[in-house]
Design brief:
This protein has 250 residues and is an alpha/beta fold. The protein contains eight helices and seven strands; from the N terminus they run βαβαβαβαβαβαααβ. It has a single domain, classed as 3-Layer(aba) Sandwich (Rossmann fold), CATH 3.40.50.720. Bound molecules: nicotinamide-adenine-dinucleotide.
Length: 250
């Protein structure tokens, strides 16, 4: 088990791809903290993981709140005594044409997707520094590298993740804390299905995927595990694209 003895926090870990990370990391031996705004789904998932004989704790968290991020880190240490891995996965997506982006939509997506990554990392980094080791895995999107209509605000938040990842990597290198990013392609989750409500748009998206299908959440887990374990100890500031070949194949 690659995460035996480790404690991992997964933000947005109650549903979608985050759920696959929570379950997969628990099965690799980590004690998993599910930090999610959805109290019902988070509590249910923690119960399911514990019933399987692994260990999970749900901490209700709105990642856009600095106070919630601090509470999440404190409760992790109170319960498990350490925090080794932080997966900054929580995000929201609100699609709209560029002329219709409101200030509120822009601010809310930035607050959850970009500022949430900063706040949760700020809460976790002092604990990792004490241990002189740590792993931060940020989640971006292929949309930060190739545009789709209607997603300017969301994709801007995901582009920020690249800069955040490299900046953190540079600042934390002397503390033995590695910071990397996973870049998912279109993956079948509530978020993706909501964004592709229009069947014609969904067909257009699938037609651009060389593998001819959406990803499934389980297919992102390996990349997150790589960046969460000692396998990636000599790797920092990097991004790993998991997209069915979209960005590599014409
Ligand atoms: N699904 C895709 O096609 C796709 C593609 C590229 C990147 N991504 C990225 O992968 C990650 C997971 O996406 P998903 O499709 O599983 O999303 P999802 O909407 O299915 O799940 C997101 C989870 O985050 C939680 N969440 C939302 N706001 C929160 C907040 N303020 N604080 C804490 N938790 C909050 C939700 O409750 C939910 O459990 C996101 O970072 C997303 O940007 C997804």
């Amino acid at each position: 088990m690659r995460l035996e003895g480790k404690v991992a926090v997964v933000t947005g870990g109650a549903a979608g791809i985050g759920e696959a990370y929570s379950i997969g990391m628990a099965r690799e031996g980590a004690k998993v903290v599910i930090a999610d705004i959805d109290e019902k789904a988070g509590a249910q998932l923690a119960e399911r993981i514990n019933a399987e004989g692994a260990t999970a704790l749900f901490v209700p968290t709105d990642v856009s709140s600095k106070a919630d991020a601090e509470t999440m880190a404190q409760r992790t240490v109170d319960q498990f005594g350490r925090l080794d891995v932080l997966v900054n996965n929580a995000s929201i997506l609100d699609a709209q044409p560029v002329e219709e982006i409101t200030e509120e939509m822009w601010d809310r997506q930035m607050a959850v997707n970009a500022k949430g990554t900063i706040f949760c990392s700020q809460a976790a980094i002092p604990i990792m520094k004490q241990n002189k080791r740590g792993k931060i895995v940020n989640i971006s999107s292929i949309g930060a590298l190739a545009a789709q209509p209607g997603l300017c605000a969301y994709h801007s938040t995901k582009a920020a993740i690249f800069t955040i990842t490299r900046s953190f990597a540079a600042e934390l290198i002397d503390w033995n804390i590695q910071v990397n990013a996973v870049v998912p392609g279109t993956t079948s989750t509530g978020m993706a299905e909501r964004a592709m409500r229009d069947p014609a748009f969904k067909k257009r998206v699938v037609d651009t995927i060389p593998m001819g299908r959406l990803g499934n959440p389980q297919e992102l887990l390996g990349a997150v595990l790589y960046f969460s374990t000692d396998d990636s100890n000599y790797c920092t500031g990097q991004t790993l694209i998991v997209d069915g070949g979209v960005l590599a194949i014409m």
